[in-house]
Amino acid sequence: MNKSQLIEALARHENLTLKKAEMVVNAMFENMADALVQNERIEIRGFGSFKVKYYNGYKGRNPKTGDIIEVGGKKLPFFKVGKELSERVDHQKT
Questions:
Q1: pLDDT for 45-70, tens place per residue?
Q2: 42-44 and 68-71 beta bridge pairing
Q3: Residue 76: which region, alpha, beta or left (left: phi > 0; alpha: psi -120 to 50)?
Q4: Are 19 and 26 in contact (CB under 8 A)?
Q5: What global pTM score does this model have?
Q6: What is the rounded distance in angstroms from the CA atom of residue 28 to the CA atom of residue 65?
Q7: Domain locations in the chain?
Q8: How far apart are the C-alpha atoms of 31 and 39, rounded to whole Å?
Q9: 3-state class of 8 per DSSP?
Q10: Check: CATH 1.20.1250.20 for 41-94?
């Protein structure tokens, strides 16, 4: 499912116009992104949680020249699946 499909599904399920559904989805993602930028944890019970993880820098190698380069540390969003969703996906018949 992509963002457009999510908007269409929300519009159908809640009997909203596509424009209103798009506003809801965009607001939700924007608020989630803002929370992660503020280093807040997001927990959606039964679904999972999002948090920001810090990864230390390391020494890498430039594939073209072979030179050793210093790769700086970085922060990235991390998703941990919730138990209920994990079990639901695992037990789904294929």
A1: 999 999 999 999 999 999 999 999 99
A2: unpaired
A3: beta
A4: no
A5: 0.80
A6: 44
A7: 1-39, 41-94
A8: 12
A9: helix
A10: no
